[in-house]
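> Could you send the DUF2256 domain-containing protein prediction when you get a chance?

Sure thing. Input:
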Amino acid sequence: MAHKKLNLPSKTCPVCDRPFMWRKKWQRDWEHVKYCSERCKREAKRNIGV
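Output:
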């Protein structure tokens, strides 16, 4: 039985300004997740050093 992905929490990535949805791998750390991907995370760190 397939489940529907309704009412999942979402956030907006500060780097790319795109919304991203909750993922099971972020289950424990959802309140600490800031970026939608590793690429955005690396880009944010790169821009801080400039």
